[in-house]
Amino acid sequence: MKEYLRYLENESIYIIRETIAAFKNPAMLYSIGKDSTVLLHLIKKAFYPNKIPISLVHVDTLWKFKQMYDFRDKVAKEHSMIIYHNQKGDEININPFIHGSKMHTDIMKTQALKQCLDLYKFDAVFGGARRDEEKSRAKERIFSFRNKEHAWDVKNQRPELWDVFNTRINENESMRVFPLSNWTELDIWEYILSENIQIVDLYFAKERLVSDYKGAMILVEDERTPKEIVKNAYKKKVRFRTLGCYPLTGAIESEASCVLDIINELKATKFSERQGRLIDSDANSSMEAKKMEGYF
């Protein structure tokens, strides 16, 4: 393993162990994506050969790609996993095609996450966010304090000097912990290559059935896709740089069919990882606003 990757690995494992030691009921938010998968790999390393001492939590919007659900279910057979969805949102059939990304994300992601954290009383939750992922992420600390309503205050964050972290909270307050804060997208892929970590196949370029939707190229995934979108579908060799709900996640044209190809592609690109994420285009600073409301 390259020296800088070893440094990042050691730093992340230190943060993971510090969190497990400092909090009574920590958990890990598992999104099924590449960052979550690397984070889970690091947590496993931190406690090897023992099993990981925390539960995984998957907040299910019910609109993920089928391959993501298949991958998640394999992981769930190996680790304790809580799969939670907003039942009320499901009952009123919240649909990203009909209700839009803002309402869908608020009800099926933010509100569902807050419900889940309240139900299981987790006082710290690991997340796989990185500082280079999106501009509001860059404002985050590694230990991101959340008040009793799960709200994030960007102007009132705790200082983090060297590796000294303030992990103290009062009752019903919580912490979001981001051990991958100092990693970049390229670091993640270099580490996946180095450790031979298995990831969802959607990251690799293949000819897939896609259709144009709100400036993105989305996959025609299941029978819930509107007929108009299906009618205009076409085949193209694409892959996904980031994964989420399929109606809100755009594919990119690519020839990268293996991890090494992806690394070379990333070194040449000038575009952001989240260029195809429709939830980031609701309004200016939309991710920051969501995080202040309790989003991951």
TrEMBL record:
Its EC number is 2.7.7.4. One of its GO terms (molecular function) is sulfate adenylyltransferase (ATP) activity. It comes from Campylobacter canadensis. The keyword ATP-binding applies. Pfam families: PAPS_reduct. SUPFAM superfamilies: Adenine nucleotide alpha hydrolases-like (SSF52402). The gene is cysD. Residues 26-250 form the Phosphoadenosine phosphosulphate reductase domain. The keyword Nucleotide-binding applies. It is an enzyme of class 2 (transferase). Belongs to the PAPS reductase family. CysD subfamily. It comes from the Bacteria. This is Sulfate adenylyltransferase subunit 2. Keywords: ATP-binding, Nucleotide-binding, Nucleotidyltransferase, Transferase.
